[in-house]
């Protein structure tokens, strides 16, 4: 898991990562109050609260490491059954890892190759 996170942070896709949680609002017209828009992991209430907790728990930086920035990497785990052949019943349950700091519009694009294969579980 650590290898997947490190390689994702070193890839070219890292430029598209959202490194800080935030809230997005939409105001349909001036007479109505602004509404919070939910749709990304990094834009959730949970993300903002968790990041705040993590940053508060980090002690002061060690001398010489003032330039190092701490970020939270959001990880989604996914699994589904896949058939291995067009005949027979051979199948596996691959477990995928997605980095949720990436927008769903990029993450869900198959040509972006953002799914990371963690493990394959054989069917019994």
Automatic annotation (TrEMBL):
Record's superkingdom? Eukaryota
Name this polypeptide is given: Uncharacterized protein
Gene source species: Dendrothele bispora (strain CBS 962.96)
Taxonomic lineage from the root: Eukaryota, Fungi, Dikarya, Basidiomycota, Agaricomycotina
């Amino acid at each position: 898991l650590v290898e997947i996170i490190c390689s994702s942070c070193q890839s070219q896709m890292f430029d598209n990562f959202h490194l800080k949680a935030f809230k997005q609002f939409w105001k349909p017209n001036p007479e109505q109050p602004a509404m919070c828009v939910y749709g990304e992991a990094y834009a959730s209430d949970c993300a903002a609260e968790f990041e705040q907790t993590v940053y508060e728990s980090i002690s002061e930086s060690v001398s010489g490491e003032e330039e190092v920035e701490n970020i939270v990497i959001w990880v989604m785990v996914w699994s589904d059954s896949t058939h291995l052949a067009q005949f027979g019943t051979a199948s596996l349950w691959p477990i995928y890892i997605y980095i949720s700091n990436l927008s769903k519009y990029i993450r869900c694009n198959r040509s972006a190759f953002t799914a990371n294969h963690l493990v394959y579980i054989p069917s019994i």
